[in-house]
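Page 37, top half.
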Amino acid sequence: MDTSSPAVFVNAELLKMYMGRRVRAVIQVSRNEGGLMIGQSTDGQQLTVKGGAPQTFPVSHYVEVIGIADGNQSIRAEMCTDFGERFGTCILTLVAFSLILSLYVIFLVASLFEVAQVFISKKT
């Protein structure tokens, strides 16, 4: 794994903040047109991918793209990886579980803090 030039994960909205820099995105392929791959980003917006042999990826497949952000909604691909048609169902479940667990921990810490404040105020 090349760690000399890490690629930040982006969606279409974040892409514009990383113009000219190496980025990584996952899109669902909508269509292939003349050497371009057009797809939907994880935030529901459209992204265009140039290069990286996009014509080989079937419509509706999820594709990870690593390349250079060269426009508000485009990436010049260095490498593309096909994840197939059902990418992320397990990952989304894990993310949702992690989010729920994090919220629970925050609630628990807040509750403990509140109890500690009540205990301290009764002592004084």
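Page 37, bottom half:
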Amino acid sequence: MEGSGDDGVKKEGSPPGSLAKSGNDEAASDNEPPPSEPSSGFDGDAAKENTFAQPVVKKVVPPTIPIDWTRMNKCDGEQSPADAIRYPWDVVIIDPNEPYCEVVGTAGMKITRMGSDLQSHISPDTTDIVLRSHLIRKMEGIKGLKKLELLELYDNMVDSLSIDELGGDEEGYPGKNLSYNVIRDMSPVSLCPNLQELYIAQNKLKAISGIKHLKLLRKLDIGANRIRVIPSEELSGLQNLEELWLGKNKIEKIDGLENLTKLRRLDVQSNRLTTVDNLHAQVDTLEELYLAHNGITVEGATVESGLALKFTQLNTLDLSSNRLTDASPLSHLTSLTDLWISSNDIKTFDDVQPLESLTNLDGIYLEHNPVASDFEYRMQLTKIIPSLTQIDANMIGCVPTFDRGPAVMDKLKKMQERALEKAAAIDETAAALRDGDEEKMCQES
């Protein structure tokens, strides 16, 4: 009966398919959460509109990544190869009677310690110690080796020159190679007055120091560092210096060479030069001058105290990768045999024409200039400079220094003879065929 409070009786206005509740049931239902809607009674859109449940948030747990294999320079767990303790005698068998100790670490185990007791493992008359390409951080064990002539610790991890090891010994150490390390201060070399050759290239030097009293020094290589200035005070005492290598630094001006009156080779390539100057003292001694990879212009190459000087011994000049637009600054350098001016901005053969006065020039590198793209590039160069035997990397004709002329000519003659013989044989065959055809025609007629 409609409108009654009996259980199970459908009330007016109730949604279809539902049963009316009694008063007690309604009161009890006030304290209960509403029932969830049945998913089967509605379509998908209706189900979404009537769903009040909070979305389930899943916690993302990143997978475990095996990164042990990415840890570089590790061995024995967390130990770096440079932290291992390994002496020269752990790597090779050292003969205590030999006057030299040489261990190159390009393959196999690396030495990490020279050893304070090094002299107990080598001959007291040792002249050469070469420990190249290892992981040595400290110089030790060499003090007191009276006959030591060469110490080479090239390509290690040495970060300083040991005063204790270098000091107090007036003999020995004429040669020292400490290139490719991490040395920041070279001043302790002042304790080696008998040094004749010193190589400290590819380190972290910012200044040249400790060499002004090294009067016997003949070769100095401090390239690939962070040097900005050539100090005249430090170079003032190097009267016997013959080779100075300063490439790959940050030098903006050539200076401080006024006392280097025996200098034969000077390398200032890959710096920040825009001019070449202050070479008065080397006008009669300089043989090779390397100035590639700078910013030198024609004006910078005509400074009176630089390339404008009449060098009497200069045979090799490298001005590659600069800003030259013509060769006019070089026309008076008649002693040159090799000239490298590739990768500049020389556009025409008129710009090359000043080199016609270089009658001793044997080879020239002019590639990577606009003029080198000309179809007659090589032919025109040989007309301007008839003495050339090499243009860029290619030889011209038969070069006397290789003595290949007679051999090439003999081979060409033999090839020509074989070609003539083959041609003669073909002619004979053709003639025989013609004679045979004529004879046959006569017989048929």
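Margin note: The domain at 81-227 is CATH 3.80.10.10 (Leucine-rich repeat, LRR (right-handed beta-alpha superhelix)).
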